[in-house]
Amino acid sequence: xxxxxxxxxxxxxxxxxxxEKGLSELDGVNDVDVSLENxxxxxxxxxxxxxxKDIADKIEDLGYIPNL
Length: 68
Description:
Elements: E1 2-8, H1 13-24, E2 29-35, E3 40-45, H2 52-61, E4 65-67
């Protein structure tokens, strides 16, 4: 499954790298591409291993606001 998630609160390359690293560490997330310019993440994940809510919760844990 591929999901585009708008993310509020990213201000720099460090922010996008932090989100990309954090999401990549989740079991079930296969690919992450975070765009600082567009303030969004494209996440490819396995629905049988992780729910989109868990991915959104991780973004919140990192200090950002996800909008599905």
